[in-house]
What we know:
The structure holds 2 protein chains of 2 kinds.
Chain A: H1 10-33, H2 42-75, H3 81-89, H4 96-106, H5 112-117, H6 126-151, H7 156-163, H8 168-176, H9 181-197, H10 200-205, H11 210-220, H12 223-246, H13 264-296, H14 303-333, H15 335-344, H16 346-349, H17 352-365, H18 373-396, H19 402-409, H20 414-443, H21 446-451, H22 459-469, H23 476-496, H24 499-509
Chain B: H1 2-18, E1 44-50, H2 57-68, E2 72-78, H3 81-94, E3 101-104, H4 107-115, H5 124-127, E4 140-151, E5 175-177, H6 182-195, H7 197-210, E6 211-213, H8 217-226, E7 231-232, E8 234-235, H9 236-245, E9 252-254, E10 264-271, H10 276-285, H11 288-297, E11 301-302, H12 332-341
Amino acid sequence: MIHRITRWPLSYSFSLVIAFLAFVPVIILITLASDSAQMFDARNLDILSNTLLLMFFTALGSVAIGVPLALILTYVHLPWQRFWLILFASPLALPSYLGAFTFYAAFGGGGEIASLLGVTTPEVKGLFGSSLTMVLYTYPFVLLSTRSALNSLDASQVYAARTLGMSLLPSIWFVVLPRIRNAIAGGALLASMYALSDFGTPAIMGLTTFTSEIYVEYNAFGLSQAAMLSLQLLVVVALILYMESKVKVNQERPGQHLTLWFNHWQTKLLILGTLPVVIMAILLPLGVFSLWLWRDGLEYFDVQYAINSLYVSLLAALVTVIFALPLAYAATKGRVGRILERITFIGFGIPGIVMGTALVYAGLQLPFLYQTLALLILAYVLRFLPLAVGTIRSSTENLEGSLANAARVLGASPKEVYQRITLPLTMRGVVAGAALVFLEVMRELPATLLLGPIEFETLSTYLWRVYEAGYFGRAAIPGLLLFFFSALGLAIMFSTERWGNIVSNEGASR
Amino acid sequence: MQRRTLIKTLTCLGVVSALPFLSATSFAASSHAVSVDDLPELTGELTLYLGRGEGGLYEDVLNAIKKRNPKLKLRIRRGPTAALANSIMAEAKAGVRQADLFWAVDSGTIGQIVGEGLAKELPSDLTSQLQSNFRFSNWAPISGRIRTLPYNPTRVSVDKIPDDIMALPDSDLSIAWAPAYASFQSFITAMRMLEGDKATTQWLKAMNKKAKKYAGELGVVMAVERGEVDLGLANHYYTLRLKSGKPDANLALAFSKNDAGCLVNVSGVLALSENKTASDFIRYLLSKEVQTYLSGEAYEIPLAGQLPPPTGIPSLTDISPPEIDLTKLADIRATLVLMRNAGVL
Lengths: 510, 345
């Protein structure tokens, strides 16, 4: 038998094709933007500063809410500890445009709150409105990353500080916070990354950021103007991703855990003090949609929207997983595989509106794809592939090598090893990955808006049309359905119990 | 371009009158209302790009047509008028034609497509159903609308409202507007043609300082009615629709005189493919039933078949709209650039 030292596994070939596909949107954008006359003008400066301000306030706000919540949820002894944790993490599962839509409709003179209670509330829009919405839906990034850092912290030093006479708050400030600074920064970067790439919130709040302006330019001037802005946005994205890769979360040896026992009314006060966050982020949107349902009824809702959403999400989840399997497998095989896997992570950084712009043009060049479901699915696959790969990878990590090698030694062919060992063991990750992709697709708005075939309305695009036309009441059913599916997503996230992974995946997938 | 269109129309008319058998007798060249009963049944497949229905009323029209023609497979792509126009132009450039018909809410966008040479000639017996000043060879206006100044009579009396739109920023009135709306942008294009780019930019900048921005013009009219502002800039029908639902609404219409502020604009349809079903579809939109519906329910001004305008607005002869060729409102792109640079968009 000939001994082959280097071998090009089959999975590499698949991965190479997929990795190439992931590059395509960027190439398209560069080609498209070269048509565009205006490179950068005073207007772009406005857009850039709005975007940066939004990111800054989002990061600031999410730290202001996320860190204290993490401290409370980790250190304070609470009844139903796990319930509170899930409750406070739950805004993560909701697409922020649902919140933006309902805040926009609820506040201000003539808003739902004014017409219901007769109390005129200040308007929620513009930079303030966008930042508020972003903070409410991104603070869980900081909460979860801070909490996992706190959990790995040895509390002996806090006890030492307290013994030496430092009171509680200073000891947390001087002894705990400096050691979890990086975790907080990591969470804040994820939050600002979300703010950077989200389209719905600034568009609804009337704030001109890169994403909302790309849509305006696409509508008013066409693709090449939108492509130029898309490239500028990608530069900012790359910067944030670079910063994120530089943040190292340091691990400490596990040690003593810190638990604070407050008395009854103190605990109550603490919970009461944090509840407004949940009321704003979850109960208010839920309430507004329910109000609309009660007022406008079911009349205008077409079940076809829900069927379309389900159909396209299922299809996208299936295709994504099929694409993800060879990648995840290749990544375990060697360095080349890992590089190929890394390349497909580009999809992470490409905001939906940018992906949409690129693929609309791709469709125009390849007429057989234009306005087809296939192109829309391709957009989803490129966007959410890293999510599936990540989940599948995390389930294969612990079986890397040994079992497969044992099987090989016992005479199984690589194919047999894959079928009988690797695949069954990764099944759990495959299902979880598919489920996550399914739910992301369900809630995706901008790419669907740009790429949806004629007569193909989904829950999220219908919600958007209703917003644009001003018939808010008709958003009730799609809004509530999206809520329901988001709750499902939350359940999956928590059942996989891989917090760190999920958090970082979620963050980059917007 | 204008002269050429005119000559084309004339030639076309000439051909038709020379060969009388070409003009079908049922819709013979007359400007009297044609009933849907006299129209051929629509069959086959049509793709319509719909530049966003006005309050679902256009949807009602389309549904009625679908119901009447069960053999017609009508596919509809909905979106903002300008976005669909961009799509149509990009599709034409790439050689992937999708749309057979384009129903736009604003004539400027239509002018843009016509200017690209994408609109197909319409049968002259079809265009002759329209009022004589609204006849074009390759597109058909469906309904008209007037730019108006809706005001709140409890906050401001009509004699305080300037009749010169250019003087509006100098007044001490509080104002609502919706600059992202296609009809508003056509109004700005008209202003550019009448007053020049410089004056228009100055006007926009001055207005931007005092006007409150709304997403659509229904929002503008509602804000006026609630008393959030004194006066708004909106198409006439929003006021009429709101008043029909709430007859005692604090809302009245004022008109500026002989400037862009009282521009008469139209929604219109054009055919992108040479297809009898497509042109027959347009006949349905010009039929007595559809035109009556649009005027009765949507309060738009019917343009075919000499039907009366909706109640509540002065007739087109009583106001003094500026003399502007509607197809010349096609220069939207320059308008958008100007609005963008003025910080309005």
